[in-house]
Each structure stands twice: as C-alpha cells, then as structure tokens.
Amino acid sequence: MPQTLVLASASSSRRMLMENAGLSFQAEAAQIDERAVEQDIAHKALCPGELALELALRKALDVSTRNVGSLVVGCDQTMSLGERVYHKPVDREEARANLATLRGRTHRLNSAVVLVSDGKEIWRDLSVADLRMRDFSDAFLEDYLDRCGDAVMRSVGCYQLEGIGIQLFDDIVGDYFTILGLPLLPLLSELRSLGVLNV
User: Fold this and answer.
1) Helix (H/G/I), strand (E/B), else coil: 112
2) Options 1.20.810.10, 3.40.47.10, 3.90.950.10, 2.40.30.90; which CATH number does 5-193 get?
3) pTM for this structure?
4) Is there a catalytic annotation at residue 76?
5) Which of 76, 91, 135, 138 is catalytic?
6) Per-domain residue ranges for the chain?
7) What are 114's strand-pairing partners?
8) Which residues form the active site (predicted)?
C-alpha cells in the first residue's frame, strides 16, 4: 500500500500547488509557535535559509507524531535582506518602514521543504528567489498602502505578486513555486525517487 502523503501546512497556496500538480495528500497544520522556535534557536545564529529549513523540519516532525507511517511534507519560507529576517508587519507604519528599507534593493525568499517519516528526516531542499524592488517614490508608496489596505499585513514582504504588488519590482530571479513558498520541482523529483510517484 502506498505511503500516505501529509502536507504539514494550513497554507491555501501550498495546498493549491500540490493539488494542481495532481498529488494525493492530506493537509494538517503544525502546532508550533514559529516565533518561539526562533527565540529557542537564536543562539545558533542560523542564516535565513537555515532558519527556513529548521522551521520546515519542526513543522514536519510535529505533524509526523500524529501521522504514524505517513510521509510528511514540511515547508517554510523566510524573507531576508542580507542576514536580517523579516516578519509580517503588525500595522501600516511597520509595512511602510519595511517597504522603505527594501526599496531599491534586492531581497531574498528562502523556501525550504523537508520530508519526514515516523519522526525521521529523510530529505531536505532549500530554493531561493531574488527580488529587486524598484526605487519607487514616497507618493507611490503611500498610494500602494492605501490601495492594499489591511492586505499589506498578510504577507511578510507586504505584497502579493499576483496583484498590485508586482508594481514594486524591477526584476525577479527564481521560480514561481519558490516564491509561493513550496519548491515543487525538487519535491516532485524526490517523490519520484522514493517511489511515491511514477517515474
């Protein structure tokens, strides 16, 4: 009998990506506090990519405890500018400050995916995308914040590329799946290697 695939995420976009790829899976949100985990491992001074991998692993391990015999997919994404890791802004003022810091610079999305079975990590991948924001005016920034409203607080970068957020950028290097937080091509390749999918 094929191993059950479980996505350790409540993310609708990650579920959509896996569904669109034709994967048969269950989804279960991990019960971890990501900010508490970050504080707990702060002494390790992990780079933003390593932090994404650690959070993805913690999510998969948590869900694995409740899904014996299943293959659990854990994912996480960090957004970084150099070694600084950003989090979702709490209000418009923080969103404005973050966007002003990112303006005219290239930030990175670090997307991690791991596979865990019965509490053991069996595979991991880290894919990155580099996004260069254009040097937009203060007037554009205020108009952007007005048009986005509360939606600007729903993503760590204060943007959705499928909407008006695309107007923030000059250049993007990286694939669509990495930007959405699930490196799907490496995951599909590994699932084929493991015999979960047909070659």
Assistant:
1) strand
2) 3.90.950.10
3) 0.92
4) yes
5) 76
6) 5-193
7) 74, 124
8) 76 (proton acceptor)
